[in-house]
Amino acid sequence: MQIAIPKEIKNHEYRVALTPTGARELIGRGHGVTVQAGAGEGAGFADDAYEAAGARIEADVAKVWDSAELILKVKEPQSEEVKRLKSGQTLFTYLHLAAEESLTRGLIDSGVTCIAYETITDRQGGLPLLAPMSTVAGRMAIQAGAHSLEKAQGGSGVLLPGVPGVAPARVAVIGGGVVGENAARMALGLGAEVTVLDKSIPRLEVLDDRYQGRMKTVFSTADAIDEAVRESDLIVGAVLIPGAAAPKLITRAMLADMKPGSVLVDVAIDQGGCFETSKATTHAEPTYIVDGVVHYCVANMPGAVARTSTQALTNATLPYIIALADKGWKQALADDPHFLPGLNVHNGQVTYRAVADAFGLESVDPASLV
Ligand SMILES: NC(=O)C1=CN([C@@H]2O[C@H](COP(=O)(O)OP(=O)(O)OC[C@H]3O[C@@H](n4cnc5c(N)ncnc54)[C@H](O)[C@@H]3O)[C@@H](O)[C@H]2O)C=CC1
Ligand SMILES: CC(=O)C(=O)O
Ligand SMILES: [Mg+2]
User: pLDDT of 283-320, one tens digit each?
Assistant: First the structure.
């Protein structure tokens, strides 16, 4: 199969969809890999490394997209990339469609088969292709939050660990999944006082057991969120209802109850964000202030640590890429009931229920297509 790796074009996105190591695995199985010139540079992978793995380097972006049966990306296609798609191609990338109606409609019109990393499941009920980037983003959320608390960023001037004689900051993490656990773990490591809120009791049990009471676990209700809003210096939004738009858990009116200069880091922004006042920002301008509260809402946080993130992403995606390349999308999805929910759009139809529901569209059961 002919596989293309375009250079990512989203603001400050330095990841690439495949490492040279991944390219070598695919080429060894008889597939052709074309990499756009410079695609791996931001992650520290030079064109030479891909060539040494047997890949072809192509400088002409149109030729990269045109030649491909399977296109591998990191971020959702930007509008100029949607125009490059051709009916019959397969696109495998993060899509987060419930947050972006125009992208959804563009992909419907393209006639392309679109498989999203973030809706593939595993036997344990996890999201194995979201998890590596959620691990990165969760860990980064505390770095970003700590920086945003500094006065120069509009923050309250609180240092997360405090110092001897001065209490540490209070950090609340809403959603105790992969992002939430990693954020909580980093905040604990820095000496903050940490509370995790989740709607899943089994998840709170896991956290309680793993951290032996070093973080507070709280069942997520409107009351619990009100309390977190009043007491916290930093709140991380880390909820997910797979494939669906994130619920708005903190409204604009609630910002008045927060301490001036406190910080909201909305990691769930790629699914539309879980705070009413969240709007997606970029690494170039990551924060803005509403009613005295600093908001950090970067939708591609792992792009800033592209070397680590690219390696972690390829480790997770490679077995699925190999299945797509060896068998074609239809057989690959038919053979694996956990791969099947990755299908979001096929040949003009939405195949993921929560995406269709977000925009009042019809959805088609993906099982009926394979
Ligand atoms: N901004 C960025 O760069 C990145 C964003 N993400 C996003 O972060 C979000 C979280 O991802 P994961 O941690 O992997 O998901 P996950 O599925 O591991 O965890 C989500 C958790 O939210 C909980 N939850 C759902 N509704 C809730 C509510 N009302 N109150 C409290 N908890 C609730 C669930 O029970 C679950 O434990 C997703 O939207 C994901 O796409 C992930 C990576 C990078
Ligand atoms: C998951 C996601 O949106 C990202 O890694 O950028
Ligand atoms: Mg987006």
Answer: 999 999 999 999 999 999 999 999 999 999 999 999 99
Q: In the chain, which ranges are E strands?
A: 2-5, 32-36, 56-58, 70-72, 90-93, 113-116, 170-174, 193-198, 216-219, 234-237, 263-266, 287-290, 293-296, 343-346, 349-350
Task: Look at residues 125, 104, 107, 96 and name the one whose alpha carbon lies nearest to residue 347.
Answer: 107
For residue 154, the SS3 value is coil
The pLDDT mean for the chain works out to 97
Query: What distance in angstroms lies between residue 198's CA and the mean position of ligand 1's atoms?
Result: 10
Spatial distance between the Cα atoms of 126 and 346, rounded to a whole number of angstroms: 24
CA angle 127, 98, 136 (to 5 degrees): 40
| Residues known to be catalytic | 96, 270
Please tell me if the CB atom of residue 133 comes closer than 6 angstroms to any atom of ligand 2. Answer: yes
- Lay out the sheet containing 113-116: strands in order across: 56-58, 32-36, 2-5, 70-72, 90-93, 113-116, 343-346, 349-350
Nearby residues for ligand 3 (ion, Cβ within 5 Å): 76, 299
Question: Is 42 close to ligand 2, i.e. is its CB under 6 Å away?
Answer: no
Q: Report how far ligand 2's centroid is from the alpha carbon of 105 (Å).
A: 21
Ligand 2 pocket check for 13: Cβ under 6 Å: no
| ipTM for the assembly | 0.98
Dist. CA 303 → ligand 2 center (Å)? 8
List, in order, residues 6 or more apart from 32 with CB less than 8 Å away: 1, 2, 3, 56
Task: Let me know: does 250 contact 276? Beta carbons within 8 Å.
Answer: yes
Looking at ligand 2, which atom is closest to the CA of residue 309? 5
Which ligand 1 atom sits nearest the alpha carbon of residue 96?
A: 41
